[in-house]
Design brief:
There is one protein chain. The chain is an alpha+beta fold. Among the domains are: about 70 residues, no CATH class; about 60 residues, Head domain of nucleotide exchange factor GrpE (Nucleotide Exchange Factor Grpe, Chain A, domain 2). Helices cover about 45% and strands about 15% of the residues. The protein contains three helices and six strands, in the order H-H-H-E-E-E-E-E-E. The strands form two sheets. The protein has a three-stranded antiparallel sheet. Strands 2-6-3 form a three-stranded mixed sheet, with no helix packed on it. A hairpin with a 2-residue loop joins strand 4 and strand 5. Helix 2 packs antiparallel against helix 3. The termini are far apart. The relative contact order is 0.07.
């Protein structure tokens, strides 16, 4: 009798499982039964691995799965990455151009600084030479060097009747000449030169300084 009761219980359980399975197959999404498929992706009873890194470039195999809606747009990511790389390269190119210009400028200044003392020698030589023909020859060489420097953008700092400017001139001494304005350069001891806005060599000058009347 107990054996028949057990067999009957098994038949009832089996029948109940078949009914539950039929219920779930007909309407999985609306089924409230607590079955194994409730813990898995609702597409063909498969666990969804669409968001795994290795499957990032693959289409979702699940049927009617919404995973693709949340999938990142790789085309936009690659485009943004390319824009960042392009911007970095443009900045690098601009810095390289500026560095080349600065290196060229520094090299030019170094060469000019070697030549400038020769012009000071010409000035002293002209003061010592008495023969006008010889002096004229010295002036021709001096003018040729000055013209060559001008082609490089080097300019002589003006001192004739100019006001003393500490950014351009170095005062070696001062004099008091009431016939001339205050703070005016009265004599140039050594010429100065600049390349653009950069002073290569300051002019050494003598400045007129009037005393303040009490």
């Amino acid at each position: 009798m107990a054996y028949k009761k057990q067999e009957s219980q098994k038949d009832e359980n089996k029948q109940k499982q078949q009914q539950d399975s039929s219920c779930c197959n007909e309407d999985k999404e609306n089924c409230n039964c607590q079955h194994e498929h409730d813990e898995k992706c609702k597409c063909e009873d498969k666990e969804c691995h669409c968001h795994d890194e290795k499957n990032a470039d693959k289409e979702c195999e699940c049927k009617d799965c919404k995973c693709q809606e949340n999938k990142p747009n790789l085309a936009d990511e690659y485009l943004n990455m390319a824009r960042i790389i392009q911007a970095d390269f443009d900045n690098y190119r601009k810095r390289s151009i500026e560095n080349i210009k600065q290196a060229k400028r520094d090299g030019m200044i170094s060469a000019i600084e070697v030549i400038l003392p020769c012009l000071d020698v010409f000035k002293k030589a002209k003061q010592m030479i008495k023969d006008e023909a010889d002096k004229k020859g010295i002036e021709m060489v001096e003018n040729e060097i000055n013209n060559s420097l001008k082609t490089l953008g080097v300019e002589k700092i003006d001192t004739q009747n100019a006001k003393f400017d500490p950014n351009l001139h170095h005062a070696l001494s001062i004099v008091e000449d009431k016939t001339k304005p205050d703070n005016v350069i009265v004599d140039e001891y050594q010429a100065g030169y600049k390349l653009g806005d950069k002073v290569i060599k300051y002019s050494k000058v003598i400045v007129n300084k009037l005393k303040e009347e009490k």
